[in-house]
Amino acid sequence: MQILQFDSRDMELISQQHRAVQEFGIALGLNVQITADRLRSVLEGAHRASEGYYTLKHAEQWNTDFDFPQDAIDADETLWHQCSKDLTTICKVKQARLAHNRLSVKRVLHAFGPLGTKYPKMLHADFMILMDFAANGITPLFADDFVPQSSNPPPLRARYLTLKHTVNFLLYKQHQDGTVLLLSKPNAETIPGIHLSPQHQADSKGKQEGRVIGDLSGQHDPSYTPLNGTTLSKPALRSLISTTWGEIKHPTVDQLVLMVLTAVDIHGWSNLLLWKKDLKGAFNLLNYNPAYCRLFAFLLSDDMVMIHLAGLFGWIGMPHAFQVLTRSLQAMCSHIISG
């Protein structure tokens, strides 16, 4: 809902809160005079930024003619035959090519020590899970009623068909990074236990092309058994995932503000520096267990199938699996960074 109108009515709304803002600044010890005009400028800027939300219409116009290059398809099909059409083997080969910038046993031991005791706040359970992820990749958890489905897969999503050129281009970028495998549908359907899910896309703030996600919930097709669990089995699956890899607990806004104010009390406003570090690719930095990549296969246009070798958005277990890495990094950072 748009609160500001970008006209004289904005000043009426701002003037009502101006005094409260000034008092808040004084309470924080800020020696800054905040004018109503300055408030209006900042708020309107924030509103404009929040309005930068793109939709299907924008994504459709972003890339209208992309098709997967034949040489990319041929390269994976050739590797497919070289590996005797064994998916686990081909996944290991492709994952090995990514070893220079992936989680590894050597890196985990170097970072956290041979027993995972280098940093006091590092949980032993998290250390053991990280070692398993590094050695074997993430082994997905699934519900008791899950049945891999290769024959009669759910139809392609209408949104994907509308945006197939845009979505396929984004997926091709992942292929260039080496984190996915492209196969023809006839070849993919011969893989024992393969599970085909429909590809999907979601709007994204600030990105005209949106972002690609895997539809692993299958809510549009009740006859389909999704990897994320059915309506009946999903609660138990969520509980199993949380028990196995731990709950996700993010700091609240109140906690973050109190952390800043505590640092101010110790160091003063003029000595305070706030910074942010992002892990590029996030979920995509963690490999799946090669023996289970068959569960992360997506039917695409033109009778193509894409199989993911590393984490993707859309799988119910990925946030919890990645949270193990997050907690481990927090244990490290809280020890080596003062604040």
What does it look like?
The two termini are 37 Å apart. With 339 residues, the protein is α+β, with helices and mostly antiparallel strands. The protein is 45% helix and 9% strand. The protein contains 13 helices and 5 strands. A hairpin with a 4-residue loop joins strand 4 and strand 5. It has 2 domains: 9-29 and 37-51, no CATH class; 54-336, no CATH class. Helix 1 (9-27) packs across helix 2 (36-50) and helix 7 (124-136) crosses helix 13 (318-336). A 5-stranded mixed β-sheet has the order 1-5-4-2-3.
Helix content: 40-55%
Order of neighbouring strands in the sheet with most strands = 1-5-4-2-3
* Total number of domains: 2
Main sheet attributes: strand count, strand direction, barrel closure = 5 strands, mixed
- End-to-end CA span: 37 Å
Low-confidence stretches: none
- Bin the strand percentage: 5-15%
Number of strands: 5
How large is the count of helical segments? 13
Write down the overall geometry.
globular
Radius of gyration: 24 Å
What is the typical, i.e. mean, pLDDT? Answer: 89
Secondary-structure element order, as H and E?
HHHHHHHHHEHEEHHEEH
- Oligomer type: single chain
- The secondary structure category is alpha+beta
